[in-house]
Amino acid sequence: MAMRIVAESARLLGAPRLIPIASAHIDGALYHGDSGTLFAERLIEGGARVAVRSTLNVGALDLMGCSRVRLEEPQRGMARRMMEAYRKLGCEQSWTCAPYQAGHRPAQGSDVAWGESNAVVFCNSVLGARTNRYGDFLDIACAITGRAPEYGLHRPENRRARLVFDVSGLSASFLASEIAWPVLGSLYGREVGNAIGVVTGIGDHPGEDALKAFGAAAASSGAVGLFHIAGVTPEAPNVETVLAGSEPEAVVHVTPQMAAKARAGLSTAAAPKTIDAVAIGSPHLSQAELDMLERLIAGRRLAVPIYACTGRHVLASLEQDGRRKRLVASGVVIVADTCVVVTPIMPELAGGVLMTNSGKFAHYAPGNTGYAVLYASLADCVESAIAGKPRFTDIAA
Amino acid sequence: MSAAAEILVPGKAGEGEALVLTAPISFWGGVDPKTGRIADVRHPQHGEIISGRVLFLPGTIGSSSASAVLMELVHNGRAPAALVLHEPDAILLLGLIVAREMGWETPTAVRLGRGVFETYRGTTVKVAEDGAVRAIPGKL
């Protein structure tokens, strides 16, 4: 069955052949309804097992017991059966949307089959490995067969940039701020859609967590599978190389007004007086991001909870020196293996307002949780959680 | 109007009121898999139900779980009557491919240029098993 799914997809996409893959990241183990559980169990009945290293994206339950998921029976049992089925297929119990920060980093130029839109874009853009945007079910089918259709981003000629996204018109202080990356990612995704672009006008490497935030936002507002940043990402030592000698088909000159509009578009709540919660960690928080959270809270008590979503790969170090205890005592809810927009964790609240520093949460929270969102930097999220009402620092684009 | 469309994924013939989306959508996070309602508050067709409609899609964005949402809609009887896409969508259509593997009855997905989508707005559309897309005269 797995090979039929791979072959049928190859036919649909016009791929001439299948190629071997080095690894997979599986996004199909998140419960959306019984159909996905039945599919995974059908694979097991057929004796399937993954042929290559396969990490798992988030599930619908927090198996580490950090947070309480409000999923009722029978859905809860079906979600657990689904997670169990993927374990039986031989997948690693990573349960994170940031596998690239949990030790799964394929080599530059290698072919892999990754699902989860932010993981795909990071894998292609920051690691330089080659994957298409694999949808749920094709990722596991490729992992079982060890093969993927040869098309799209597996082919080097399809990886060059065709558009230029120039941010040199923005202020240095904005570009150096944390919010620049989710805001620009959101704008980038909307501007380029599924095309491949190169960002120009970035001086220094902004750090891996910034690229993670940019890619996640871009892959939410657009169909972005690969971006380049001149002088930063591995396939773009400079603009000329990544354009492969061709003129760009379009150049987007990002103005401060465009950035301001994109930033405003990440919020859906209109000037609320209070907030009900803060959610961070989409993609899952890294060790460095949790360190920053701890420093910003500085032992103070929160008026509303901060839901901090992360992977089990970060939990061990969080247990050291009582760090997790201190965060929880302040009012932080650690969420592991899953996150607050994929499964019901936050209380159901008509008219609830959620603040976030994640472009991806800002995109999906209104539809999935019913909360209106307010977008802000991590520092402002923390100050707002302490005050129980929105606090904004002015950062002009 | 009528057109002979290329079949992307074969399925059963379907008939329903046209729903022409004016912006690309992420099925995951954008469509409720239980009800078929467009849940993305930023989408121009927010609140519309896609179940039983002939869905004209100008493109898809966002999550790689679009396939899982579409398969769940098929499994619980809330799928569109047919899907009309501007180009083959590697993620979304997997939902139909895998549902067929599971032995569930799936709607047909066909390809038409997005330039003609608007001509079907406000009509009842029939998509035949051979890919013929036709607005039914005399019906809304």
* CATH homologous superfamily annotation of chain B: Phosphohistidine domain
Strand segment count of chain B = 8
**What is the CA-atom radius of gyration of chain A, in angstroms?**
21 Å
Helix content of chain B: 10-25%
- How can the largest sheet of chain B be summarized? 8 strands, mixed
Rg of chain B, alpha carbons: 13 Å
Fold and architecture overview:
Chain B: This is DUF126 domain-containing protein. Chain B: Keywords: Lyase. Chain B: GO terms for molecular function: lyase activity. Chain B: Residues 25-99 form the Phosphomevalonate dehydratase small subunit-like domain. The complex is a heterodimer of chains A (397) and B (140). Chain A has a 5-stranded parallel sheet, with helices on both faces. Chain A is built from 15 helices and 14 strands. By secondary structure, chain A is of the alpha/beta class. Chain A is 38% helix and 14% strand. Chain A folds into 3 domains: 2-155, Aconitase, domain 3 (2-Layer Sandwich), CATH 3.30.499.10; 160-265, no CATH class; 277-387, Aconitase, domain 3. In chain A, helix 1 packs across helix 5 (138-145), helix 2 (34-45) runs parallel beside helix 3 (75-88) and helix 4 (117-127) packs across helix 8. The model of chain A has no long low-confidence stretch (mean pLDDT 97). Chain B has 140 residues and is an alpha/beta fold. Chain B has a single domain (2-135), classed as Glucose Oxidase, domain 1 (3-Layer(bba) Sandwich). In chain B, strand 5, helix 2 (94-101) and strand 6 (108-111) form a beta-alpha-beta unit. In chain B, helix 1 (66-75) crosses helix 2 (94-101). The A-B interface holds A 1, 4-5, 8-9, 12-13, 27-28, 30, 32-36, 38-39, 42, 115-117, 120, 132-139, 152, 189, 193-194, 219-223, 265, 268, 341, 363-364, 366-368 and B 8-9, 24, 26, 28-30, 33-34, 39-42, 59-69, 71-72, 74-76, 88, 90-95, 97-99, 101-102, 104.
